[in-house]
Amino acid sequence: MADEASAAVAAHTRHVADFPEPGVVFADLTPVFADGAALAAVIDALAESGRDPAGAVAVDLVAGLDARGFLLGSGVALRLGVGVLAVRKAGKLPPPVLREEYTLEYGCAALEIPAEGIDLRGRRVLVVDDVLATGGTVTGAVALLRRAGAQVQRVSVVLELEALGGRSRLAEMPGGPVEVSAISVG
């Protein structure tokens, strides 16, 4: 499953030089998601990280990060038979919200989740996103979910940009390290 997903990512990812700023090579996964077989392989591989070694579902909820993580998180949640939570960029949800500000490679941002209507206390949450770069967005999401009472031990991404060190930020998080699984490493 992981080999098929890795091959799909390699075959369909579009690399764009000097975007969003000079010197950066942007890995555009949109073509991966637009191919039905590639998307299915990616969803299946990401869903495996939500299972224990015996194959049983080991999470209660999938958290997809704004915005491509929404696409992935929904598919993973369906495969696992659990719900999905959209972790939104600031200003997209009605109040009250829980908010976490964080830094990323191009500046500062904030993520939000509803403060009411979803009880995350004690729930085992798998965080899903498209790319792990410096780890700013993912660490912000993990901190936010943990502050809401969720148990977050694992993050699953399509592509990890290993040279940018995001995995090490997750290993050093307050509240304990977060395990990372990536379909492809670049």
From TrEMBL:
Gene Ontology biological process terms from the UniProt entry: adenine salvage; AMP salvage; purine ribonucleoside salvage
Signal peptide: none
InterPro entries assigned to the protein according to its UniProt record, in alphabetical order: Ade_phspho_trans, PRTase-like, PRTase_dom, UPRTase/APRTase
EC code(s) of this entry: 2.4.2.7
Subcellular location: Cytoplasm
Keyword annotations from UniProtKB, A to Z: Cytoplasm, Glycosyltransferase, Purine salvage, Transferase
Chemical reaction(s) catalysed: AMP + diphosphate = 5-phospho-alpha-D-ribose 1-diphosphate + adenine
Gene Ontology MF terms: adenine binding; adenine phosphoribosyltransferase activity; AMP binding
Residue ranges constituting the Phosphoribosyltransferase domain according to the UniProt record: 38-158
Pathway given in the UniProt record: Purine metabolism; AMP biosynthesis via salvage pathway; AMP from adenine: step 1/1
GO cellular component: cytoplasm
Superkingdom, taxonomy of origin: Bacteria
Primary location: cytoplasm
Oligomer and partners: Homodimer.
NCBIfam families linked to this entry: PRK02304.1-5
Function recorded in the entry: Catalyzes a salvage reaction resulting in the formation of AMP, that is energically less costly than de novo synthesis.
Family as reported in the entry's similarity comment: Belongs to the purine/pyrimidine phosphoribosyltransferase family.
Protein name, as recorded: Adenine phosphoribosyltransferase
